Amino acid sequence: MNSRIRMGLVGGGPGSFIGPVHRIAAELDGKIELVAGAFSRDRVRCAEAGRSYGIDPARAYPSIEAMLAAEALREDGIQFVTIATPNVHHLPAASAAIAAGIAVMSDKPMTATLAEARDLAAALAANPVPYGLTYTYSGYPLVREMRERIAAGAIGPVRKVVVEYNQGWLAGAVTGKQAEWRLDPAHSGEGGCIADIGVHAFHLAEFVTGLRVALINADLGTVVPGRVLDDDCQMFLRFHGGARGLLLASQVMTGEGNDLAIRVYGEDGGMRWRQENPNRVEWLRADGGMEIIRAGDPGLSPLAMRGTRLPGGHPEGLLEALANLYRDFVADLKGEGGSLVPGIEDGLRGMALVATAVAASRDARGWIDLTV
Predict the structure, then answer these.
(1) Residue 207 is part of which domain span?
(2) Which pTM value belongs to this model?
(3) Among 75, 128, 253, 372, which is least packed by CB within 10 angstroms?
(4) How confident is the model at residue 2 (pLDDT cuts 50, 70, 90)?
(5) Residue 367, in any domain of the structure
């Protein structure tokens, strides 16, 4: 029997951006194979997706329920599912898999609402299976290197954190599946930009610093007329221990691509990283000097080197970062330990951020506790 871990994909039908990305990243290291999928509830589109992924036509199912039932009868049935659907489908898909004893790797955010996230956490507590969230940027080797060095005291106690996620693709009138569901609360949930990219920035800030946000002061806005959900966000952060922070997330910054960046400043120095130039970290010294840390450098930590596939000077990017999460998830499935895959706590915190920021901004509450 094939020794690779067998994956089922939920979503990722024709026209999907993220479905093929998941497939490529999952299979990059040869440890996982996509063998089945519930790509669309439309049978014709589901079959079309199955053909595009090159799987057995009999294993392209019209629903996750059909997939779980049929795959359970096979000796070579799926061992985990990846959920790559609009947010509103995350809870039912994950709940069905968990009830069947199947591990779950889900796109972020965890669910459409905080109440749903709590329900999903309860389902996992009642029937534990490995569960991961694709906060993909935590898979970059140099993001993990920053985390390691900051934890080791390289910049001293953290004082200030600035994280930005700047996009411009929703700056005007837009059409198409990718934009439409993100702007529709029936598919996205209670948050727009904050749920789509704000949670990425939030998770990155907590992941890199090892600190947890205690208080937020949020200002969410709808810039383009006619929209219901936020498309622009800014908020002040206060971390446990006293560090201050600033989070900016916007999808209406005209001309921007996918500019995610983080800067962390401590008593003895600072570090900064940018996703559009992901193979270097700048380490700022208190004396005004700066050291460039590069991907693949021999002095990197074992954790960063474990996530690096190519020699220094050969750029790696988003696919490799997501592949690092999948490689860690395989370790979770095998019970090997050492995984850095974001999990249930990260999911709950992300949904708490969305719910708290939306309500606090709407009611102009000012500073408010971030309560999971």
Answers:
(1) 140-309+343-362
(2) 0.96
(3) 75
(4) low
(5) no
